[in-house]
Amino acid sequence: MALSTAFTKLFGVRHPIALAPMGGSAGGALAAAVSRGGGLGLLGAGGGDPKWLARELPLVAQGTDRPWGIGFLTWALDVRAVERALEHRPHAVMLSFGDPSAFTERIRRAGAVLAIQVTDLEEARQAVDLGADVIVAQGTESGGHGARHGRSTLPFVPTVVDLAAPVPVLAAGGIADGRGLAAALALGAAGAVIGTRFQATAEALVHPAISAALVAGRGQDTERSRVLDIARSSPWPSRYTARTLGHPYLDRWRGREAELAANTEVQRAYQEDVARGEVPPLPVWAGEAVDLITDLPPAADLVDSLARQAEEALNRAGRQ
Question: Given this model, what pLDDT does residue 94 score?
C-alpha cells in the first residue's frame, strides 16, 4: 500500500515524513538526504544566523533536486533571515515557537508553503487564522523545546486535526519508528515531523558524543526543564521548556530555576565548566522515543525504512 496523504500530494514527495528543523543539527546535508530519500528535508536555521545560512543553504539547494524547506525559531527571527532563505527558493518555510504573523505574507508571496508548528490550541487557532498551508501539532514527548504546559501527542494531534480541517496536520513528538508514523496517520494526521531519530543519523551536525548518547539513551532518562536554558544564558521564552537527556546542571538546579536565573556567577561557571570539558558543550536534546534508536543509519535509508515499517504496521492493524 502507498502512504499517499494530503502532505505527499502537496509536496510531491513519496513518503509522509518531514525532518524536524532542529536548530543547528539539521544542516544542509541532512535535509538534502531526507529529501532524496523521499521525505521533506527541513533545514534547522534557528534564529537565522547569517554565517550558518550562508554555509548550509547551498548544501541543501545543491544536494537535492527534490522538495526541501527551512525552519526558523519565530521568537528569535528577523525578516532579513527569511528573505535570505527565500532567495534559495525553498518549497516550504516552517515557523515555530512564537507569533509568526510578521513573516507569513512574505513567505506566501515567495510561493513557499507556509508551515506553522503549534504547541497548544491557542497557537493552532492562530495558525488557521493566518492561513497556514500545513500545521504541525507538537506533543510534549518531543525532544528539544516545546510547550511548558502542553499536551501529549496522542490526544493533541486529533484535536488539532479537527480544529484545522481541511488544512493538513503533521504530528510531532515521540515518533521514532514506522509504528509511530502509522499511529500519526491513524490519528488523522497527514504525516509526521521526526526529530530525535534523524538527529541520530550519519549526516546530522552533531558531535559523536551526542550520537553515542542518543543510541544509549532511554526515554525515562529524558527530562523537560528550563534549567539548561538558564544556565547557558539562552533567552528562550519561559513558556517553552526543553526535553534533554540527563545533565549535571539538571541534578544541581532542578526545581531552583528562579534562584539559578538570579545567579550570574553560576551562569559564568557553566561556561567555564564547558571550557574545561566538565560538562557537554550542548545539552543532548532527546525525545521520549529515544529508546527506539539503536543505530546511526544514512538518513535517506532511514526515510525508506520508516515508510516500510509504517506500511507493515497499518497492514497488521487491518488484518486484526
Answer: 98
Q: Residue 2 has what pLDDT?
A: 73
- The count of other CB atoms within 10 Å of the CB of residue 162 is 10
The amino acid present at 128, given as its one-letter code, is V
Q: Are 237 and 98 in contact (CB under 8 A)?
A: yes
- Grid coordinates standing for 269? 561557571
Please write the tens of the pLDDT for every residue from 20-68. Answer: 999 989 999 999 999 999 999 999 999 999 999 999 999 999 999 999 9
* Helix spans in 87-195 (H): 104-109, 121-129, 153-164, 178-186
In this predicted structure, the answer to whether residue 127 has a pLDDT above a threshold of 60 is: yes
Strand order, beta sheet including 169-172: 17-19, 191-194, 169-172, 134-138, 113-118, 92-96, 68-73, 41-44
User: What would the grid cell of residue 248 be?
Assistant: 549535571
Cell triple for 213? 548518547
Cα–Cα distance, 261 to 281 (Å, whole number): 19
Residue corresponding to grid cell 515555530:
96
